Amino acid sequence: MNARCNLLSLSSHVPSQVLTNDDLAKMVDTSDEWITTRTGIKERRRLAATENASDLGCKAALKALDEAGIKASALTHIIAATCTPDSLCPSVACIISGKLGAGAVMAFDVSAACSGFLYGLSLCRSILAQDPAAKILFVCTEALTRRSDWTDRSTCVLFGDGAGACVLTADERPSLAALEDVLCKSDGSLNNLIVVGGGTATQYKQGDTVGSDFFIHMQGREVYRHAVRQMSGICEEILQRNGMGIKDVDLFVPHQANLRIIEAVGSRLDVAPEKVFTNVDRYGNTSSASVPLALAEARAQGRLEPGMRVLMTAFGGGLTVGAALLRF
Ligand code: UT7
């Protein structure tokens, strides 16, 4: 597909509350040493009791609209990627639309867990191919600490909250970055490896107390194995189908789930360590928000000059996996 799909802007937002490894060590039987050596995470953000995923997303969205110079009322689509929506219905996209006063836009959510940014980019590209006049606000936002089981040390140390947003069009006007290609896949036979509860599978009655199924469950070791294999595989595939090699990539921005996974994927792909962007130490795993949050931070640090090519990849519940090439 050769449709033009340009990012006019890119932004992020994280809540102000910082939860350090030492804070967690007061809640569960863990230590800064274990979390740092096994994951590379030092701290993560936690949203306030008064905030929801839509609030984080809205803050990122306002910055993205401002940078793009587009009013909410001019948008044609609002898409939100999340696995921790405020509610099953309405969608986070509709809540954000209402908060922004966007009017009669098409608004809906994408459920692809940590691969949400890549899945959303693929969708935006298809929408722009069908409707080149579309103006899309795409938001990735997560409130994962709301589904963290604070008694389960094997999962609660991993996740954090945050949001990223961008505006996409097929305009010819100068853009921040062009989407060169995106590739997304899944393996539904492994859907039990990462589960975020709170859906209708559990038949709660009013007055029941939530059970452990309400929270994030993950078979960590299995996920780790698949994550390394799937992310490196899909990166090789997208490079190959574009006639590129890793030498054509200026910055590698992988899903920030675990530093060891990032290093293993980087090593399989033979990416020079200085070309691998990481911020997992400060935010942990923010699922769909992870890649746009990393990308926005790389840009803020001056690591994305015009002309540079970025390879992004992510992996998550579903199991889903994706990769994309962006040219700044
Ligand atoms: O977003 C995409 C989805 N998520 C991921 O990509 C996560 C993928 N998986 C991982 O990152 C890793 O598997 C984890 C970080 C979750 C776990 O690391 P691991 O090296 O695979 O540890 P493990 O699960 O094999 O556990 C090793 C030991 C166990 O103790 P025993 O049975 O050996 O006595 C665990 O009980 O570490 C223990 N453990 C902990 N100890 C201290 C597990 N969590 C903790 C903890 N603090 N927080």
From TrEMBL:
Transmembrane regions listed in the UniProt entry: none
Domain Beta-ketoacyl-[acyl-carrier-protein] synthase III C-terminal: 239-327
CDD domains, A to Z: KAS_III
Keyword Chloroplast: no
GO biological process: fatty acid biosynthetic process; secondary metabolite biosynthetic process
Keyword annotations: Acyltransferase, Cytoplasm, Fatty acid biosynthesis, Fatty acid metabolism, Lipid biosynthesis, Lipid metabolism, Multifunctional enzyme, Transferase
Compartment list: Cytoplasm
Catalytic activity: malonyl-[ACP] + acetyl-CoA + H(+) = 3-oxobutanoyl-[ACP] + CO2 + CoA
GO cellular component: cytoplasm
Keyword flag Transferase: yes
Active-site positions on this chain: C114, H255, N285
UniProt EC number: 2.3.1.180
Enzyme class name: transferase
InterPro entries: ACP_syn_III_C, ACP_syn_III_N, FabH, Thiolase-like
Domain Beta-ketoacyl-[acyl-carrier-protein] synthase III N-terminal: 108-177
Domain commentary: The last Arg residue of the ACP-binding site is essential for the weak association between ACP/AcpP and FabH.
Subunit and partners: Homodimer.
Family: Belongs to the thiolase-like superfamily. FabH family.
PANTHER family per record: 3-OXOACYL-[ACYL-CARRIER-PROTEIN] SYNTHASE 3, BETA-KETOACYL-[ACYL-CARRIER-PROTEIN] SYNTHASE III
HAMAP family the record matches: FabH (MF_01815)
Name of this chain's protein: Beta-ketoacyl-[acyl-carrier-protein] synthase III
